[in-house]
Design brief:
Order of helices and strands: HEEEEEEEEE
Number of strands: 9
Structural class: mainly beta
Strand order of the largest sheet: 1-2-7-6-9
Radius of gyration: 20 Å
Strand content: 35-45%
């Protein structure tokens, strides 16, 4: 029989330094809003230009496709939603929690010459992919296909 001892006490200097370094890296990579728990979390995004226009890929695992909203207005695209916190069945207390839950929002600046009617979005394996062809601008909410 194995005995596991969990010692709970004040955080060590090394653990506190580690947490401060993580918060600092989040601020450098994602801006100051990335570490504000009141505002939710900020998903990572890749944006690139191709022959047909632009592609935006957003990493949002654990988010229901029906809970994602994509809204285009002028030269901006807003992607928002909520990643629900799972129920910890039988858990008495958390010992380590790094995955962010709650609302998220990303606003992406686009060239003003996009064809809003031809924008397509798909969601698969935790990645939201939005294809944005070049063309004329119009406000539009984008439906999401996928599994």
């Amino acid at each position: 029989m194995s005995i596991v001892r969990i010692r709970i006490g004040p955080p060590s200097e090394a653990a506190e330094l580690h947490r401060r370094m993580e918060r600092m890296m989040d601020r450098l990579l994602y801006g100051p809003e990335a570490v504000d728990p009141q505002r939710g979390w900020v998903p990572r995004v890749d944006i690139f230009e191709c022959e047909r226009g632009f592609q935006v890929t957003m990493e949002i695992p654990g988010v229901s496709r029906d809970g994602i909203e994509i809204l285009l207005e002028g030269c901006y695209m807003r992607v928002s939603g909520v990643r629900e916190e799972p129920e910890a069945s039988g858990a008495v207390r958390w010992h380590h929690m790094e995955i962010a839950y709650g609302p998220f929002e990303r606003i992406v600046a686009l060239p003003c010459e996009v064809d809003a009617e031809k924008i397509r979005a798909s969601y698969r394996d935790g990645f939201l992919t939005i294809e944005i062809p070049e063309g004329r601008t119009a406000a539009r909410q984008v439906p999401i296909s996928g599994s």
